[in-house]
Design brief:
heterodimer; A: alpha+beta; Alpha-Beta Plaits; SH3 type barrels; 6-stranded mixed beta sheet; two-stranded antiparallel sheet; 8 strands; 41% helix; 25% strand; B: alpha+beta; 3-stranded antiparallel beta sheet; 5 helices; 17% strand; globular; disordered N terminus
Amino acid sequence: MKLDLAIDQLFELVNQVREASYSDEKTPLLNALALSKEVISLGTGESAFDVVIFGDLNGFKHLNDEHGHDAGDVAIGQVGELIHREFVEKTKIKGKAFRVSGDEFVILIKRSSLASFRSKTTSFKSVKFRYEEKDLETKMSFGFVVSDGKTDFAELMKRAETACLSAKNKGDGTNVEWSPEVERNALVELRRKCPSCFSVNKCSVPKDQSQKGLTSCAFCGVAF
Amino acid sequence: MSQVSEQTIFLGDGLPHRPRIADASGSAIIGAVALGLFTRDWAAALAGGVLGAGLANQKQPLELAIREYFKKRNLEVMFFYRAPRYVKVTFTYAPNAFWTVESTVPDSISFPSDEERDDWLYGNLIKIELPKIMRKIRRLEQR
């Protein structure tokens, strides 16, 4: 009797530990480790998913700077909840969603769910929440790529990320599919840490103008 | 022999101690083990299903104690962070409404043990800091 109890508890523990190791700590989504496990099955053709979606929050740095990192964490949590609701559970899409770092999310879905996914991204135009005494909102845009069955996952991720930058340029709550044309007009994200005030400057510019971007610090005005 | 439960015994400055492990629900204990909130010895004993009187009478780890306290008051803990003399909890009290509460040991206070320091962090959080915030929330809701 006692042994049965111990084995049951041990199994429950093992399951919870396994679940915890693949769970994201700030959202109901999976984490980067879970994504790397999924990528292995994508590579072997065992995965049912063939669309890679990349999304990140718009204006997240501003939210963090203006209202503090706790408010930023809540924004991530709120977006994670919405992604879970819209693309993972209680929906026909039945995708798998991961928070891969900071404010970056990856969602895997089947091609047959693409139209449904595209119609739902407008929910991310403004995700409102109340943090302490302030009414805040966060926004998100998505880029995606449909796998051709030949391109490896790392390249698919790069393409989805490129498409996401175009979507950000288009507006909050939008989605853009990667195509050779999107790649040609792609924006690249430049980051530069100011040597004077140590602020991180960030901007998106067309690829061919990447040498010209960020000539001075937006925070203290020092020339780079 | 006193019949007063651990929860009602107060520290010198009137702050309540953390409750005993035996006062936590079974699922909370299992969840806490999975999250690594217990030390290895405790986890092994719990996994073996032999929660003896000695262990049952020990105090709950700080995070478990705080999570249990919030849960009993229908407040959901979203994020939990702790440092040796500091603890921070972001919780939700209504749909899409959040607040962060902190408990910090002042530099002027020193404790004979880490256990007593954790009791202070817990007691200060639930007796002093959280009620302040709940009053603010009620005022905001009445507006």
